[in-house]
Predict the structure.
Amino acid sequence: MKKESYIKKEDRKKILLLCDDIRAHSGVAHMGREMITETCHRYNWVNIGGSVKHPDEGKRFDLSEDTNKRRGLDDSSVFIYPITGYGTPELLRGMLLREKPDAIFIITDPRYWTWLFDMEAEVRKHIPIIYLNIWDNYPAPIYNKTFYESCDALLGISKQTVNINKLVLGDKGDNKVIGYVPHGVDPKVFRPLTVEEREGEEYTSFVSKMNKEKDIEFTVLYNSRNIRRKQVPDTILAFKHFVDGLPEGKKKKAMLLLHTQAVDGNGTDLPAVIELLAPESQGYNIHFTGGPLPPEHMNYLYNLADTTILLSSNEGWGLALTESLLTGTPFIANVTGGMQDQMRFIKDGKWMELDKDFPSNHRGTITECGPWAFPVYPTSRSLVGSPTTPYIWDDRCDPEHATIRLREIYDMPTQEREAAGMKGLEWATGPEAGFTSPIMGERVIENIDRLFAEWTPREGSELILAGDLEENNINHSLIY
């Protein structure tokens, strides 16, 4: 914590955070919790914490003491109101009267906040709305324009999201704060283990349990949800092909470790996929971790892995890759969405930037990237959609190309593989990338402070001449 950024509790601005319950295990909850922890010396926080059917609905919890311990403070102010869903206008009006926040901060898909955007004129006459937002892919979603216009600050999680915010808003973005705030994880939790820790009983017992007490020499880790866009069956297929290509004496010494739900209605029945493609009875080692794990054991997973893999056809960020980077573990990933940021593609000698003429590298225009990243380029880019999200590219990669990447990593000398991973760690924790929770907190503070300094209340009404309405046409190329 920088001394100059500390503000006394009674002098701080209060921010009302609407997102998942920050005590939960979702990615949104994780980032909300890290953001609060890293900024609680600067702002007071109130979380309206959503869940599908929240068992604590109607209660109020004081998380200040726990936050103090995590942050090393003695005067943080963090409260949570658990709710089912994400909120209603009536709930928000009550919270505005009760808590009197200086700003509203929202996270996750804009379709969860349509009720808030519908009342933005009512809210923004008094306080600003901040949106930590993400969008998985192009074409630039013109259908999100009114959502973006309803916010005063748009903090984009990926370079792609920042570019999308600017493309969609056009001149409307000139009076908004638009900043790059990528996800950051705690470097004290996700880190390479020391030699002593690797030789310790706790870690060796954990590894033995994950390996099913088998002699495993090469481990591939998948850590994400079992949903369709994550392409988990393709990951299993890629691993099968990889094992089939190994020397006979090495086939049973490779393992794919799945930290995900075995069966999910939003995905598939993974045990059935495994039984079809790579059953244990034929010598394949594909195991589930067995459910949620505490943070220190999640760190163990990345440390025991030789590589992490994520082949999502759409991925706003890919938090598993960030955690992999901070443990010095190389990764294989499909080139789409925010995963591109973490590969550090190099354009004109610098970390790749995006604009309307080059909004994504999912066509494989650039191939030079960080040595820790083993990209797989989409071989199919198909426009898909739904009534509320009419169009978006679905970037499918060929699982056989992932197999090639697996073999490349497998064939690398251990020392070379570890060196590549450590370069990723150095970059991810450094000032350019800054994929750590402390740097994420600094970026949040920088953008929020700027907003408070520049913000003016919204006019009660706005007169728009029909002739001034812009056509909702695409404003960037589809081939680039």
